[in-house]
Amino acid sequence: MEAQALVALPVVLALELSPGDTPPRRTLTRDEAAELAALIAADLHALVPEVNEARLALAGALFDAVELLRPGFPAWATLDELARRVPRGHLENVVAFGTHEGHMPAQPLEPEAAFADGPMRLLPMSLLAPEALAEALSEKLEVELVGRGEAGERTADWLMRTLGVHLEHARYLSRNDLLALTCVQYEHVNLAPLWNLLEAALLTPYRDEATMSARGLALRYHDGKVQVQSPTDWLRQHGGDVDARAHDLAGIVFELRQYAALLDAHHLPLVLAADPTPRGYLLETPAAVDAAYDAPTLYAHEAPGLGVVAVTLAQRGEGGRARVLAHGYPLHPKALGPLVAELADRFDIAPDLHTLGRILIDREGQLGAPAESLH
Hints:
There is one protein chain. This protein is of the alpha+beta class. The protein has 3 domains: 169 residues, no CATH class; 85 residues, no CATH class; 75 residues, no CATH class. It is built from 10 helices and 14 strands. A 5-stranded mixed β-sheet has the order 3-2-4-1-5, with helices on both faces. The chain has a 5-stranded mixed β-sheet with strand order 10-13-12-11-14. The chain has a 4-stranded mixed β-sheet with strand order 6-7-8-9. Helix 1 packs antiparallel against helix 5 and helix 6 runs antiparallel to helix 7. The longest helix is centred in the C-terminal third of the chain and has 24 residues. It starts with 5 loop residues before the first strand and ends in a 20-residue tail after the last strand. The relative contact order is 0.11. The model has no long low-confidence stretch (mean pLDDT 92).
């Protein structure tokens, strides 16, 4: 039994690649990971000699920031768990994990191909420090890595030769540094509200966080999900003529898709507060079928560059008056088929989608359906 509990201090080696450069692989073998870990241990000792009293654990895998910054920090959590299993003092207190027969030892340490082309690659590591040392070591790392955390020449040269890339920079960052860097990047592309939600999910998952998108859509982090205001509700609250409202709704859906893609990459689902089931689309069903009206019909609202922005299910009654039963908003291209299939199944109709070629706004200024039959 260990005399002191070990506290994990998360660190990352950030590799900034030359423009257009992409490593031909995303992982290192066990032997390669061990070689790199020895070089990193020497670098960190030169920066903060006290690291010798901690265990260095390295994952020989190249990640994007979105893969590492997920609720619960699964890559670091897995790395820490694996490192704690190795007897203390083994391998001179440096332990590295790489591939065996092409696979990393656990799924959270397998980088995803979808994020392999980013300009920065990140190798996660942890320093497992005795509890009595952890706070002081953490504070010193935060100061030293920011000030002079560039990787040593031997380490950078090894990385370039082994990975077959040219590096603009290779430097050590604490996880807090990585969070701050990602925050700045998101703010730079007008995604500060999204970062507010993501930060809450990462650092204070037990606490709700509310914000508003750049276009005024209400958002709230709650219980592991991001709840978003219904676009229909947003449209109800905003004025403007028919063309302006159609344009604004297209903008809202574009923003929703951008948020959904990023949140999905960080493993945070985007849902409606009234319907918290993650589906890849938002679906609201304000009314039930009325037998006095015609059979329900599915209509696709379209916008240039966005394709189908919304699907409306409606019945036509006396005088062609349309009665809306549901609105659905696909958050990515592959979500349209499942959205149509769910509406067809739920309302027991054929999955025939009638395209409108535009966003149809009714006389009340809401998303609607045509009064006349489409042929």
